[in-house]
Amino acid sequence: MPSAAADRRHPIKETQMQDDVLTISGRPYRSRLLVGTGKYKDFAETGEAIAESGAEIVTVAIRRSNIGQDADAPNLLDVIPPDRYTLLPNTAGCYTARDAVRTCRLARELLDGHSLVKLEVLGDETTLYPEMRETFVAAEQLVADGFEVMVYMSDDPIAARHLEEIGCVAVMPLAAPIGSGLGIQNRYNLRTIIENASVPVLVDAGVGTASDAAIAMELGCDGVLMNTAIAGAREPVRMARAMRMAIEAGREAYLAGRMPRRRYASASSPLDGTFF
């Protein structure tokens, strides 16, 4: 049974966690985990996994998901209702700025003027690596058109700076290729982007398991977006729960500040000051 002292401490801890929010385009979010909706076996599993993840922002591939385009087909919004989640339409499957801009405009029509979007312009079908020249063009057009743009990008600090100057509300460098599950392969670049950005930095792509998510947060990322790492797990709902806890643990560890790395041992109970 928890002690009275533990009970007194708990509200303080809860308040601290509530105060530490992710703010995107002026809106606060308690969860720093963003999730996708693809690759699940059915809509029921999709909804259950997303609920278990604790995510508040859910990204939707407009070119691949029915959110009202087909009135006769199952609607994804039935399991991720807009009154419960912040929808983040994305331009997955677009290989030109023109297609990406057109997709975002379609999403705005379908979602009654919704302006928050995730921009991704891909370079090729094999690596799904971002095509940065087209990404810059699309970002400029979308920002000028009143969109709030979160942008998938390469792990290039100079590109991140340029996208921020364009007016993107968040930059989302990949940690490894989309769907690879290779984990965080570029810690130095990510740290450089984080240290120089004044907008949120979220890892997008490459996470494979909970420890990868925790590492991203320990590096100082503001959040992590993932899909395959959850949907491709043997038990997606359980993995969603693991990812939620990993994001929270990684964030707490980052805020706490890790101990310095040392080459040699440092006794946890030093002899200095002992009685005998």
Protein architecture, described:
Helix content is 39%, strand content 14%. Mean pLDDT is 90; it is low at 1-15. It is globular. The protein is built from nine helices and ten strands. It has 276 residues and is of the alpha/beta class. The chain has helices spanning 4-19, 43-53, 97-110, 132-144, 157-166, 187-196, 210-218, 228-231, 236-256; strands spanning 22-24, 27-29, 33-35, 57-61, 86-90, 116-119, 148-153, 170-173, 202-204, 223-226. Helix 4 packs parallel to helix 5, helix 5 (157-166) packs parallel to helix 6 (187-196) and helix 7 (210-218) runs parallel beside helix 9 (236-256).
Summarize the structure.
With 276 residues, this protein is of the alpha/beta class. The chain contains 9 helices and 10 strands.
SS strand fraction:
5-15%
Number of strands: 10
- The stretches of 5 or more residues where confidence is low (pLDDT under 50) are 1-15
Q: Helical element count?
A: 9
Observed structural traits:
single chain, 39% helix, 9 helices, disordered N terminus, 5-stranded parallel sheet, 3-stranded parallel sheet, globular, alpha/beta, 276 residues
Q: Topology of this protein?
A:
Layout: H1 4-19, E1 22-24, E2 27-29, E3 33-35, H2 43-53, E4 57-61, E5 86-90, H3 97-110, E6 116-119, H4 132-144, E7 148-153, H5 157-166, E8 170-173, H6 187-196, E9 202-204, H7 210-218, E10 223-226, H8 228-231, H9 236-256
Parallel strand pairs: 3-4, 3-10, 4-5, 6-7, 7-8, 9-10
Antiparallel strand pairs: 1-2
Helix pairs in contact: 2-9, 3-4, 4-5, 5-6, 7-9
